[in-house]
Amino acid sequence: MSAAPNSSADKIHPLTSLRFFAAFFVVIYHTLGNLVRGRFLPANINTPHPADALPNFGSRFLSIGFVSVSFFFLLSGYILAIVYLRREKPIDRRKFFIARFARVYPLFFITLLMDLPFSFRMLARLSSMHHAMLKIPINFVVETLMLHAWLVKFSGINFPNWSLSAEAVFYLSFPFIGLPLWRLRGKARWTAAVLLFVGGQALVFAWSTSFDLSPLQPIPLLHLSTFALGILLASWQFDARRQSPKPWQAYAALVAAAIVMVAAVETSPWIPLHNLGDGILAPIFMLLIWALSSSATGLSRMLSVRWLVVLGEASFGLYLLHIPVLHIFESVHSIAQPWAYALYLALTIILSVLSFYFVEAPLRRWILASFDRHPRESLEAASIAQ
Q1: How many domains, the chain?
Q2: 46, 52 in Cβ contact below 8 A?
Q3: What are the TM regions of this chain, as residue ranges (predicted)?
Q4: Domain that holds residue 328
Q5: Is residue 1 domain-resident?
Q6: What is the pTM of this model?
């Protein structure tokens, strides 16, 4: 029996549910400052947050919500490897690109349109109406083409969607790097993993000390190593010689991940912020995915309950909708009161679920029915393969 989830749904549900908590962490990171007036969150990744500015574990934890994006990147490589590489055959690029387009682009474009008027109004207030009329159309074209992680001066409409610009690079590279990484075995696989992690973090550190970067202006290639580590994790788990983790092994991995995560949070004021945002926590995420990708633990079974799985399936919508919904909500009422903030969160979650069932899934099916009648990705697999 293989260690990783196979075609049975119960083996993939915990990872689906985990996506909800990761996306919700991003939502809290982006919006809680509106409620607490920035008490918890550093205004910018370029702004150091010394220990005295983040005096307790809670404030430090909330200040690193952006690390969820690295988790998404790693999980994306992991799930795509499971779906496409287990047969160890070349990937049908046409089918693959159609499936990825159908998964991410419809809601990406819809939320881009939703946030467009608010971005225009904000820019007009900050500069001038003339400047906004010139710049926003260019921004819209650049973001529509998913080039805004490269052309950072022409971004800012629904800013969290920068990660999809990075994902587009991963999708383009996957048919070429996926199978070679999957076929690595033994020392070669471990060597590749170490080189990817250490080399990737060294590159991030060197790049960030040489250029002015921010968490919302990443270079996609700096995240590619995290995506590749997800592929290697899937390859290691699906090695035919490997057995399912025993319950004590899964629990040990969860405890280890928790301990290292607490240590990372406590020391976060001294860790280079760009490395935090660009994959330095990948080993923790790999432990979590390995431990939760089977039903060996009570936590895995808890995360497999249907309502959490539904929230996980809607996590992509939660991630993309929370800023447009925030702008719409605050045009009516500020979220600076606890009740208003709670209402905003509840509304965003509800809309993300409705979006999954009535926007994302129907549009995905329509695109696939038009261009690819026999996709390899199931709806559930696609829901966590952002």
Answers
A1: 1
A2: no
A3: 20-40, 61-84, 104-124, 162-182, 189-207, 219-238, 250-268, 280-300, 307-329, 341-359
A4: 9-384
A5: no
A6: 0.90
